[in-house]
Structure formats: C-alpha cells, structure tokens
Amino acid sequence: MPTLPIPVFVALVLGFTCLRLWTEQSRLTALGVLLGICAVQSLIIALAQHYMIPGMRWVQPVSASLIPPAAWFAYIVTAVRPADRVDRLHGLVPLAALAAILVAPGFLDVLLPGAFVGYGIAILMQALHGADAQPRAILAYGNIPARIWLMIGAALVASALSDVLIVLAQIAGRGELRTWIITVFSVGNLLLIGLFSLSPYLRNEEAEKPDPPADSPEPDAELWERVTAYMAREKPYLDPDLTIARLARKLRVPAKALSTTINRATGENVSRFVNEARIRHVQAALMRGETVTEAMLSSGFNTKSNFNREFLRVAGASPSDWLQVEGRAIGKTP
Q1: Cα gap 172→108, rounded to integer Å
Q2: At 109, is the pLDDT very low, low, confident or very high (cuts 50, 70, 90)?
Q3: What distance in Å separates the CA atoms of residue 246 and residue 265, rounded to the nearest whole number?
Q4: Which residues does residue 243 pair with via DSSP β-bridges, in sequence order?
Q5: 308 Cβ neighbours under 8 A, 6+ residues apart
Q6: How far apart are CA 2 and CA 5, in angstroms?
C-alpha cells in the first residue's frame, strides 16, 4: 500500500492554504508568499530526502535560505511599514547560499543556521516591543499579532536546531537519523510558520498602501490636544480595522510620534488607549438598552474574547455585572 511521506502531506496542506489565501484576498500578499515558500520547501525536502531525486539535495539549502528573509519581509510589511527598496538587500541571503553551493559547500553549515537564528532573533526583538512597535497591526487585536510573530520568530530559531542535531548525529555515527531529524524539526517548523501566517490576527488591508508624508512632529501637549479632539469629534475607534498607521495618517503625524505622545499622556500603549474609548462607547450603548453583542459590534470590536478582556480591564467587571451595578445605581431594573 503506497504511503504519503510527512513532508509531502505538509506541502499539500500549506500549498492548498496558500492558494485559498490568494483567492480570498485577490492578490498574493507577503504572508501568502511566505506560506508558498514553506510549501515548496516541504516538497523539496520530500523529493531530496525520501524520493532521492538527483540534484534535489543541492536545491534544498538554496530554497531553505529564502524562508528567513521572507518571514522578516512579511513581518515588516504586515506590521511595521510599506515595502522599501532597501528590502531588496535581503535577496543576498539566497544568493550567498547559491554561491556557497558552487564554491564552498561547507559554508552552508554556517550560513543557513545563522540566517534562521539571525532573522528569528530580529523578529523576536521587534515583536517583544508589543502593539506600539507594529503600527500596521489592527488595534482591536491588542498584543495578539505581536505574540503570533513571537512564535514565528521562535520557530525560525528552532529550525536552526535541526542543523546542529544533524552534525551531532554524524559525529556520533548515527547518520541514519538525518532523515528523521529533517522531517521532525525542519518540516514541523515549516508547518508551524505556515499555519501561524494564516492567522486572521495578522490580517491587514493597508499593508500594500504607502504612507503619505506627515507634518513635522509637534510638542507632546499640542499633539495630545489634537488627538483627544479628533477622538471626540470623529470617533475613529469605531473602525474595527483601525491601526496606528491609519490614525497617524488622519492626524498627519509620524506613527512613532503619535505612539510616544499617547504613551506619555496616558501611560498606556495606543491599543489600550483606543480600546478604552471603545469600552466607554460600549457602556453608553448598554445604558441605552443595546445588547452586549450589539454594543460590542457597534463600538469597533470584532472578537468577543478581546472585547471581554478589555471590558474587564477598563471597567473591572464583566459587561453583565457592570450593567447590573450601573442599573441599580440609577434606579433601573437590570
């Protein structure tokens, strides 16, 4: 009875989800490219390690070298800023892998683990700064996108472990473990990276839109006055897809200046500041007689888990408990 190797199964799963993502969004996003590269790499591993196709073992390290810069690029354009010409420099990584194949194959033992660890740590360091370091991430999701990128960064670092284990297995005279190590660590982490990149919390409709030039930075007090006036007048927090970048464009200030000003004035990050305004809007809607779900959806929240967490943080109680207490306070029957 024919069997399907694990890398082939993973390649089919990731390939299918990549095509679905492409179809749903009508364009191939940076996350879609990362997903596609992971699918192709898993297939190449199967061809090289399980089916022993001639030449595939030389293709495998070059295609693997595409993954770390692709993950970094996906993080940058999804969470931080639009694509820039400087991002093309990351193409030097696969070019270096190709050159190593042709000139110094032994250098791949340093290049590939170094690329996975280096890019993984870079994503970890950026994501550790939380929501304010990701102006293109949707504010309604709070720190969830940052946590997902932390897991992707950790998966990249863990992928380098397979190369170390292969070397140790060869030193110990257990070369037969090579295929299992590659299957478990490399393919397993490819699957993790691919599935994490599918998360709806990384969705960002603005990722391909360039930012217009901002006005020169203002003193904190003046900018804070503009922020509070704009929040009260225009209620941008009612937009469930609001991002720091979008809010900064409306105010025509740099996203970093906006984030710093809000942090200094409130002691909170932008996500919490916006969500607090949403909770106040929810409370007013509840007092008008709207249901919890109606109030949540009309106030800019799009996930109940985040809404419940933020309501508890701001009000100190669940929506139903808060409404019961407030109803008694003003003489209403809850």
Answers
A1: 21
A2: confident
A3: 20
A4: 138
A5: 318, 319
A6: 10
Find out whether 300 and 242 touch, Cβ atoms under 8 Å. Answer: yes
Alpha carbon distances (Å) from 152 to 35, 43, 178, 196, 249 = 12, 20, 24, 7, 29
Return d(Cα 206, Cα 290) in angstroms, integer: 32
Tally the residues of the chain. 334
Look over the chain and give the mean of its residue pLDDT values, rounded to a whole number: 86
Grade residue 211 by pLDDT with cuts at 50, 70 and 90.
low
3-state SS class at 219: coil
H or E element: which one contains 32? helix 30-45
Whole-angstrom CA distances from 261 to 150, 226, 257, 258, 272 are: 26, 11, 6, 5, 14
Chain position carrying tokens 């360039």: 210
Q: Which residue has the higher pLDDT, 132 or 275?
A: 275
Q: What whole-number distance in Å separates Cα of residue 333 and Cα of residue 215?
A: 51
CA dihedral of residues 131, 14, 29, 302 (deg, nearest 10): -50
Cα separation, 234 vs 8, in Å, equals 52
Rounded Cα–Cα distance for residues 95 and 99 (Å): 6
List, for residues 195-207, the tens digit of each pLDDT value: 788 788 887 654 4
Nearest Cα to 42, choosing from 77, 8, 83? 8
Q: At what angle do helices 30-45 and 188-197 cross, to 10 degrees?
A: 160
Which tens digit of pLDDT belongs to each residue from 6-22?
888 888 888 988 888 88
| Cβ-defined contacts of 283-290 (< 8 Å, 24+) | 283/315, 283/322, 283/326, 286/319, 286/322, 286/323, 286/326, 287/323, 287/326
